[in-house]
What does this fold into?
Amino acid sequence: MADPQPGSRAEQRKRTEDRILDAAAQSFFAVGYERTTIRAVASAADVDPGLVMHYFGSKQDLFRRVIAAAPVPELSAEPGRAAEEILAGLTERMAAAPVASLTILRSMLTNPEAAEAVGAAATRYQANVAQAIPAADADLRAAVINAVILGVTISRHLLRSDALADAGPEQIAELLRPGITALAAGPEQGPEPE
It folds into this structure.
């Protein structure tokens, strides 16, 4: 679909939608799903609340659009390099508490609508991971990798597990490296058992 012509109604609508999505993202990431209101989003976007509902239908649909617009990291097609990219991303997120991500995780854990939208984003990420895994069970391996990352993130930042909270990000990544690398590599290509 071509970009709307500058100054056209379609272009004005796109700018308004973008403003609403930006305001919604800031609110969802700052205060979470439960505490974000359509009125607050509308006020931040400088539009009428009815316009937010007209464009997006509901708070749940608005949240889905915000989550769907979040970038999903592209991974190398080479399994070893993909494993290192996964670990580098996790290390980066562990180095500083990812405030926006934690707010969304809290929302996911307390609200089924938020959990559904975040689950769809996790599925997109898992699909990227699965593409780098040369195995028939690549989807399962990608799901396990995602579960490990999610578990470490929740345990370190939300539950503040002493051992995980006190350990350095590089130390945790080093402990995870053999498992993530093995999952990303797929089954070993050795001789057939007799």
